[in-house]
Structures are given as C-alpha cells and as structure tokens.
Design brief:
alpha/beta, 2-enoyl-CoA Hydratase, Chain A, domain 1, three-stranded parallel sheet, globular
C-alpha cells in the first residue's frame, strides 16, 4: 500500500512514522487512519525495537478532520469511531514500544492518538487539549477512556468537560506527558532516544512491553507470576548465554 498521509523512515531497529498532512495541521482524516491501520497490521516487529510517531514543528495533529465528520450519518460515525479505536489500540498491543513526539498543536484526535502510545515526549511549544465540546461532540477516539486512566478522574473531568487547554506542567505531573523538552533540543532528543533504542536488547524490550500490557488487564497475583515467568525465560536466553557478561 502506498502511503500519502504518513511517511515512514527506518533507522536500523527504529521505525519513524510522521503524520503527513501539513497543509491541514496534520488533521486526521479517515484515509490517514486507514494507512496507520495497514502499517500496524503489516509491520514486522521482529526486526524492530521501537516505533516512533511524530508530526512537524508546527503541529503534531490538530485532531479529527471536522469537514469530513460533518458528512457522516449516525451509523457511519459509530462505525468509523470503532475502526479508529481498533487502529489506535494496535499501538498498545504492538510487540514493541511506541514513542510519540509532540511539537506544536496536539488536540482532540491527535492527542488521542498520542495517548495510545507507551511514551509521550513533548516540546515546550506543545498545545494539548480536547476542544470537542465546543463543536457539540465528545472525543471519539478513546479520550474519555484513556484520560482518566492517565491523569485521574477529577483532572480528566475538568479538561474534558470544559475544553480548557491542558498545561504542560499539569500534563507532566499527572503522567499524560513523560518529558518536556526545550524546543531547541527537541530534534536532538529524538535522535538521542533513537540511538538508545537501537542499542537495547530486543527480547528484553519486547518482554517488558508484554508485561506492562498484561499488568493493565490482570489481577496482581497473575502479574507477579507473569513477571517471574518472563524473567526466567530471558535469564536463560541472555544472561546465561553471555549476553549479560558486561554486568
């Protein structure tokens, strides 16, 4: 499949995906989601350590394409929302870590896309928020599901119910954003993390991602058992075969 709305660049074991609709501030239309779906369905994670997602300096994404939304019937809107849910949730279940780099505008569906990634890194110029209520709709790509999980119920209620911008300081304190980087250092930070991810042990990365996802869905006793099982598997594969001799 030839992509028009995303651009993919592979650097050794890291695949960088850039949203590519700059004339619309990377607003997410259905064709962009279909391209992401195809990519996430066909990606060969055996050869990768991480997936990075970014926009451009001005905008990660202004959100869903409202001009496209207003043409949908009720049935079409529900079907499309479910398709977007399924696509974005692939980022959570992907075998490798997903890291999103947010510069500039990141609103609505753009922020929902970012929220499905494992790690979110923002430039100081990042603008976060859910303005959907101003248009008479609600977030339709997982925002009401994930924001309470990532920021807590009451903080989420404030920003979802008022449409107010989410300050970066609050976003970082509450866990929505993991790092805030000065604008001048943002590109270098991405390149540095790319280098780091390329050097890490692939099996250990994937096992850790597996554990993180399993732990979100299982009881605490099962979490401990799963951790012990994967720890033992990696100990046998790596440490005992000399990979861990540097320690």
């Amino acid at each position: 499949m030839k992509y028009s709305y995303i651009k993919c660049t592979q650097n050794d074991k890291v695949l960088l995906v850039r949203l590519n609709r700059p004339e619309k501030l990377n607003a997410i239309n259905f064709l962009m989601v279909q391209e992401l779906n195809h990519l996430l369905t066909t990606i060969d994670t055996e050869k990768l350590n991480a997936l990075f997602i970014a926009g451009n300096e001005k905008a990660f994404s202004a959100g869903g394409d409202l001009s496209e939304m207003k043409t949908l019937s009720k049935a079409e809107a529900e079907k499309q929302s479910q398709y977007i849910h399924n696509t974005f949730r692939m980022l959570q279940s992907l075998a490798i870590p997903t890291v999103v780099f947010i510069s500039g505008i990141c609103l609505g569906g753009g922020l929902e896309l970012a929220m499905h990634c494992d790690i979110r890194i923002a430039a100081e110029n990042a603008q976060l928020g859910f303005p959907e209520l101003k248009y008479g709709i609600i977030p339709g790509a997982g925002g009401t599901v994930l924001l309470p999980e990532q920021m807590g119920y009451h903080q989420s209620a404030y920003y979802l119910l008022t449409g107010e911008p989410i300050p970066l300081t609050i976003a970082q304190q509450q866990g929505l954003i993991q790092q805030v980087i000065p604008n001048a250092n943002f590109k270098a930070n991405m390149e540095n993390l790319l280098s780091v991810m390329n050097t890490l042990n692939s099996q250990a990365i994937k096992a850790t991602k597996t554990m993180l996802q399993l732990n979100r869905l299982t009881d605490i006793n099962t979490r401990y058992m799963n951790e012990a099982r994967l720890f033992a598997e990696l100990l046998e594969k790596n440490i005992q075969k000399g990979v861990g001799e540097r320690f």
